[in-house]
Design goal:
The complex is a heterotrimer.
Chain A lengths: L1 H14 L3 H23 L37 H37 L1 H15 L3 H12 L3 H28 L2 H8 L4 H37 L11 H10 L6 H27 E2 L4 E2 L1
Chain B lengths: L3 E13 L8 E14 L4 E5 L6 H8 L7 E6 L2 E2 L5 H8 L2 E4 L13 H11 L8 H7 L16 H13 L5 E5 L7 H18 L2 E6 L2 H7 L2 E6 L2 E7 H6 L4 H8 L36 H5 L5 E4 L2 E3 L11
Parallel strand pairs in B: 3-8, 3-9, 6-7, 7-8
Antiparallel strand pairs in B: 1-2, 1-4, 4-5, 9-10, 10-12, 11-12
Chain C lengths: L4 E10 L2 E11 L4 E5 L6 H8 L7 E9 L2 E2 L5 H7 L4 E4 L13 H13 L3 H14 L5 H5 L8 H13 L5 E5 L7 H18 L2 E6 L2 H7 L2 E6 L2 E7 L3 H4 L3 H8 L12
Helix pairs in contact in C: 3-4, 4-6, 6-7
The chains are: A mainly alpha, B alpha/beta, C alpha/beta.
Chain lengths: ~290, ~325, ~260
């Protein structure tokens, strides 16, 4: 994609001047790296229980065990390893859900925004009706129907959020299609297909990137939330959400059991939002490309 | 006493630069070391393309911006660094009219309210009436009851002028006021301005990118390029005999209805990376070595002509 | 020799509001016809009607006969074969009329590959030559640039290159100099005259500037309020024009007439 080409070559260095992008990017990179390598770098099996080593404090506290860096939970599982694997879970959910939502949202948004007419009217009616359901209830209803599990969580997120993606893409397309260069392309005799993929899409790509980044933040939050209430991943899968729920019961005695997963979640979601915001700020409104 | 005396005026704007390290903010000098005077009852034209600094100059002169360097003296009073409170009594005497008549009038207020507000603000009840102001700009009295959206572009512009006139200012700055009007309406406004100069004895600074329009109305003209004045003189003389290469190109490029028009200046902007010498050097067909290394000062050529060009210096070409 | 274009009783309306009313005119092969009028006169709409690029809400009636075919009766698919190849358009804002996401090279080669069925290598070669024709020094460098990296004048040269890339019979130039400074305007005018002579293309030059039109067009059609008032030859514009509107237009033009008194 030439917009990406241009973005990377010309403005990458410039983008790093934005604190939001810098901070966001660093943390998100750590998040992604951790998520991808967790099975290889985690010191322990996240599900390995050891009643002998239960409820240990972090290694730097008196009573701690250096082989369990952040301590253990009530079943003797290493919190640090669970945290790392939780990153994998969060990453998998975020990436897949965002991809699904993104593809559906982009295709429908372009169809509605460029072709207009009956397709647009129908689609927008569906979106309106869909969006009138409270998202939380919709997600929970879906989970109740399909059962828990990481893939159902992904489905729930996509089912709820595709409407938002579609709407934003559609309004961007509506704006771009009125521009002079689209008129030039039509005047040149290009087909609708060409115009959509060469004229419209590259010029809404920056917005899609912003949407996707923010969507990942939402996906992580939703996964953690659902897992927290027990409607998310299966109990055998380590998730920051289940860790938080476990940690809540031991707040008085071992506050770190709660703090570590909670802070990690907050930091990751915050950085995804920072990154998305930072990129959004960098988009030159006149050109719809990165400055 | 000169109506307006501007000396070494410079106005800078911060332009963030793209460097990887640090915050190297370079400044763009929108107006760079400009000096000129406006006499009583004189109409001074300021002509230049977009980016020449003419609008910034207009706004700085009426103190919408504060100058970074230089002095502005209005009726012998130094208004360069006065604060807004000190400026208020002077605002009566200097007025500015802007380009877009659609944006400069509050859509929710009737024409007469707009004019009355100004009258009340400056305590002129009794001296000037709304009717007088409307009449002065050639609008019928009943227009006072109309809202802006009920007026045409030209009529709105006349209301904006009426609003400026009501205070009987000594100096009116008109910033591209006819640029968004069609040609017939434009001619009407130009005639109106000439009448105003006669009957109200007002001086004017008329800013425009259109040399033909400036020629029609101004006595003298400043030609601006990239923030600097490149030529100054009596309008008809400059048009008949332009000295600065940019002015020549400008005069040459105005299409004439007689059909004897063949624009000769075909050069394209080359990369203006070196800003050390004359700003125009990279586009100038006559540029020589000195032009790229030193900025030409604005020098007095004849009684009423100034040019900033190395070609005309004593030890230059001529 | 048959006329290249015959517009007959063209009427364009938007929801009962007529913006072009019964306009008729003809364009010969190789001539530059001016469509002159102030803002809202309907000249832009007329130009876009010919290349059939009006918004879908527009209601069009009349006939637009181009090389013996009525363009208004053609299917969209057939019209696409004509656009960009037989009839092309140049727009007012040169930077905005180019796709910000692609290099200049791709924008020129795409249209050539579409209509001329040539391969990429050939297209790039022709693109380089085209840029030379429109007076761009260093065409190789410019080909690799993005529109926002070029000045307005350069972009308009590129747009002109694209418009002539497939050797069209008719170019619709919609206010091609309005967004440019007056010096660049002179350059563009010279360029268009040169291209027109070189390719023997007809041009419909749409502008609000009567003096400009008088210098580039052989004939001028004066429009106001959707109607075509009269068509006059540029050479005799001062003597031939009889419509009161044209006379007022002429008398309202500020000029640089040297030495003489302005009214």
């Amino acid at each position: 994609m030439t917009v990406m080409e241009k973005t990377l070559k010309g403005s990458l260095l410039n983008s790093l001047r934005s604190k939001k992008i810098l901070v966001g990017l660093v943390i998100v990179t750590v998040f992604v790296f951790t998520g991808l390598t967790a099975p290889y770098i985690a010191p322990h099996d996240p599900n390995k229980q050891s009643l002998r080593d239960a409820n240990l404090p972090p290694a730097w506290v008196e009573g701690g065990n250096p082989s369990y860096l952040m301590g253990t939970d009530s079943l003797g599982r290493d919190i640090f390893s669970r945290l790392l694997h939780g990153a994998s879970v969060a990453l998998y959910v975020a990436a897949t859900a965002t991809f699904l939502t993104g593809v559906v949202g982009t295709i429908l948004g372009i169809a509605a925004g460029y072709i207009r007419g009956k397709i647009d009217e129908l689609l927008m009616r569906v979106v309106d009706i869909w969006m009138s359901f409270p998202p939380v209830i919709l997600a929970i209803a879906l989970i109740s129907l399909l059962g828990t599990g990481i893939n159902n969580v992904i489905l729930a997120i996509a089912v709820v959020d595709w409407t938002r993606f579609t709407r934003v893409v559609r309004s961007e397309v509506l704006a771009v299609r009125e521009k002079d260069f689209v008129a030039s392309a039509r005047a040149a005799g290009f087909s609708t297909n060409y115009i959509i993929w060469r004229e419209i899409f590259p010029n809404i790509l920056p917005t899609i990137i912003v949407l996707a980044t923010l969507e990942m933040g939402i996906a992580v939050s939703v996964e953690v939330l659902l897992s927290f209430v027990g409607l998310g991943v299966k109990p055998t899968t380590p998730s920051w959400g289940t860790m938080i729920s476990d940690g809540l019961s031991y707040l008085r005695t071992s506050p770190t059991m709660l703090m570590f997963p909670l802070l990690t979640t907050m930091v990751v979601v915050l950085s995804l939002n920072l990154l998305g915001d930072g990129i959004r700020e960098k988009i030159d409104p006149k050109l719809e490309v990165f400055r | 006493m000169k109506m307006l005396r501007v000396t070494n005026l410079t106005k800078k704007f911060a332009e963030p630069r793209r460097t990887f390290f640090g915050r190297d903010k370079s400044f763009l000098k929108a107006v760079d070391d400009v000096s000129f005077e406006v006499d009583d009852k004189e109409i001074l034209g300021v002509v230049g393309e977009s980016g020449s600094g003419k609008t910034t100059l207009a706004k700085t002169v009426v103190r919408l911006y504060e100058p970074d360097v230089g002095r502005i003296e209005f009726m012998d009073v130094d208004i360069t660094h006065l604060n807004q409170k000190q400026l208020r009594p002077l605002r009566k005497h200097i007025q500015i009219v802007f380009q877009n008549p659609y944006l400069s009038l509050n859509p929710r207020r009737k024409v007469k309210d707009v004019i009355e507000d100004i009258i009340k603000l400056h305590g002129l009840d009794g001296t000037v009436s709304v009717d007088d102001a409307l009449q002065a700009v050639g609008l019928p009295k009943n227009y006072g009851n109309r809202y802006p959206h009920q007026l045409s572009g030209g009529e709105r512009q006349r209301v904006a002028i009426a609003r400026a006139l009501v205070l009987k200012p000594k100096l009116i700055v008109a910033d591209e006021i006819t640029s968004s009007l069609d040609v017939m309406t434009q001619m009407g406004i130009l005639r109106l301005l000439k009448n105003i100069r006669e009957s109200w004895e007002t001086s004017m600074i008329f800013v425009s990118h259109d040399l033909a329009v400036v020629n029609h109305i101004s006595d003298r003209v400043l030609v601006m390029y990239a923030g600097k004045v490149v030529e100054e003189g009596i309008t008809s003389e400059i048009i008949n005999n332009p000295h600065h290469p940019y002015t020549q190109a400008l005069v040459d490029s105005v299409p004439d209805i007689s059909g004897n028009w063949s624009p000769k200046y075909n050069y394209e902007e080359k990369d203006s990376s070196s800003i050390k010498g004359c700003r125009f050097a990279h586009r100038c067909p006559f540029a020589f070595e000195k032009c790229y290394t030193s900025e030409p000062p604005l020098i007095q050529l004849a009684a009423e002509r100034k040019v900033a060009c190395h070609l005309y210096e004593k030890n230059g070409f001529f | 020799m048959a006329k290249l274009l015959k517009v007959q009783d063209l009427t364009i309306s938007f929801q009962q509001n007529e913006v072009v009313k019964n306009v008729s005119f003809e364009v010969e092969r190789g001539e530059i016809l001016g469509l002159v009028g102030q803002s809202g006169a309907g000249k832009s709409m007329t130009g876009r009607a010919i290349i059939r690029l009006l918004p879908s809400s527009a209601h069009v009636s009349g006939r637009i006969i181009f090389k013996e075919h009525d363009l208004l009766t053609l299917k969209e698919k057939e019209m696409r074969k004509i656009r960009g190849k037989e009839i092309t358009m140049i727009q007012q804002d040169p930077v905005a009329s180019l796709n910000p996401a692609f290099k200049v090279r791709d924008q020129i080669t795409d249209i050539m590959k579409l209509h001329l069925k040539i391969d990429n290598k050939e297209a790039v070669n022709r693109a380089k030559n085209l840029l030379n024709e429109v007076g761009i020094p260093n065409p190789e460098k410019v080909l690799l640039k993005y529109p926002h990296q070029l000045s307005g004048g350069l972009c308009q040269r590129v747009a002109i290159a694209i418009a002539f890339a497939c050797n069209p019979s008719l170019v619709i130039a919609d206010e091609p100099t309005t967004a440019l400074d007056v010096i660049t305007q002179g350059m563009v005018v010279n360029l268009m005259k040169k291209m027109q002579q070189q390719f023997n293309t007809s041009i419909i030059f749409i502008t609000h500037n009567l003096a400009l039109a008088a210098n580039i067009c052989s004939r001028i059609a004066v429009m106001n309020d959707g109607q075509l008032l009269e068509t006059i030859t540029s050479k005799n514009i001062l003597t031939e024009s009889s419509h009161p509107y044209t006379r007022i237009l002429l008398s309202s033009l500020p000029t640089l007439r040297r030495g003489s008194e302005n009214t």
